Amino acid sequence: FIPANAPVGIWRLDVCSGLQDRNEDPYMYVYSDETDAYILFNPWCKDDPTYMDDEDKRYEYVMNDKGKVYMGAYKSRHGRPWAFGQFDDVVLPVACYIMELSSICDTERGNPVRVCKAISSMVCRNNKHYDDDVGHNDFNNEGNRGVMMGRWDGEYHDGVAPFKWTGTVRILEEYLKSGYRPVKYGQCWIFSAVVTTICRTLGIPCRSVTNYVSAHDTNSSLSVDKFFDRDGTEVQGGPDGENWDSVWFFHVWNDVWMRRTDLPKGYGGWQAVDATPQEESDHKNQCGPASLEAIRKGDIGFGYDSPYIFSQVNADIIHWGEDWDSDWGWRRMKIYKYHVGRSILTKRPGKDEDFGETDREDVVHEYKSRAGTETENRSVHRAIRGYQRGYQYHEFKRDVKEDVTFELHEVEKIEIGDPFQIKVVVRNDSSEHRTITVGISAHSMYYTGVQHVTLKKSEGKFQLGPKQQQDVVLTVNYNDYWQKMVEGCMIKVYTVCYVQETSQSYTEEEDFILEKPKLDIKVCKEGMVRQPTQVTFTFKNPLDIPLTECQLSVDGAGLMRPRAFMVDCEVKPHGQFSYTMTFQPLVHGERKIIACFNSKELYDIHGGKTFWVNKYVAQSVVGTSKYVGL
């Protein structure tokens, strides 16, 4: 037995023994065991700061070595299967090693607050300090620390594209093989998956959470400000070139479970940590652990980057339009109070679906009260008390006659290869003529909210008589978008409208993605440990062009070593891809195989398949015995 607050990490075991009644001979024999002894947090122990009393949750957040990381747009949310693999031989040594690199002192390693903060700083390498010429044993250089390098610009030729990863183990293997050089490349959802693996292998209950419509407020206004000129084009950087607020389609971080003796009573439980912070904390790229209860109540004065997390799920989005009659040159067109943090998803304990989404759990209520309630209003006002600029934007009011109604129709599910339409309905509810200016634009976007390129744009000016209505439609065909899309196939639509006679303005935005086919995975039968098992991967090419340079990434905790390999084939236009491989399962029980198909023309076609692996059985032979398996 060891104390519940013992430092976590690698220990050496020495056994001292001697004869108690031989006072004249104080000699003690010392036996030193050569095997490394790992001490972990123990969420089964009531005295441990990570203790979790719910058995189902404890299994999900500590023992489950497979799961999902949620991605997509708010209206197209989906879980991507991931092999966490926290019991693989490579994981625990790496977890202890990055604690060494983080410089957390030995006496603090029994404190999950300090350990989780260190993990959040060490998974993603700080890009600003990186130098490729640094010797790869120079760990005193801040730029050489971190398990992975982040990249979001689509240029991955000197590494592995983020969407090609299927599990954590392969990433950590690459980290070891490279001599502890940061692995290229990851993004927030991969960093969150790696944090999940490392926390679980250390015994810390951990879950990956995805915030849909996630705000990045750079000026402490608790708002994200977007500026549009008279033509409806977004002005990057704002009027002064210093506004870099952004809204991500989704952002993924982690919740870790622990007791918080350093905070007032009631603020323990789930704590948010972010391995992809967009702002520095204590001069490091780290974030958390921030109490979810404190965030929900708006008590952001407890530190641990609570204001940053609060703004990600609560900030308002404000649209500003160019106004030549304004002293500032801009006027507020619209404020979205409940657009950010619309859903926060994680995998539901005890559930696991290969294609369905009933295994997802929305935990947004743990981060904030229901929108529009008095409790929610109190939380926001409590949070903005110390922000003068926050008051400025939240208290801003204006009085403009609004007698024209605008409605942007939602875009239905669009499969990749199909055209889509953006429709704005304009109705004049007044008894007078109105002159309307309408601008509609569709943009190819990175999931971080950064615009890649404009797909198509339409502008028009027309008159509406009293009580008249008119539809304005922008049609985007396959040829308009295909060569311009980036990973994720995400599209943002803006519409900006003005009424000349009353100075009424209208602005709206919508996000959606082009749906890709799923990778269908079939296992021929129940597997058996150390016995050949066949699996087949198939999907239909939705494009009018062939798929070349095909590659598969395959993973499965307890099934095989993770691998990526080229497939010698060319998939014809609208043709079927099919590939069969054989492997030998390593561990019995319910297992999941995870795979991702990539080609030059179409990539990130992923899927997962859960199946049962039986134990090996002993077979008797006359006169002798023969054992199947090892």
UniProtKB/TrEMBL annotation:
Coiled coil: none annotated. Transmembrane segments: none annotated. The active site is at C188, H251, D274. Residues 180-277 form the Transglutaminase-like domain. GO terms for molecular function: protein-glutamine gamma-glutamyltransferase activity. SMART domains: TGc. InterPro entries: Ig-like_fold, Ig_E-set, Papain-like_cys_pep_sf, Transglutaminase, Transglutaminase-like, Transglutaminase-like_sf, Transglutaminase_animal, Transglutaminase_C. It holds the Pfam family Transglut_C. Gene3D superfamilies: Immunoglobulins, Transglutaminase-like. Belongs to the transglutaminase superfamily. Transglutaminase family. This is Transglutaminase-like domain-containing protein. It comes from Meganyctiphanes norvegica (Northern krill).
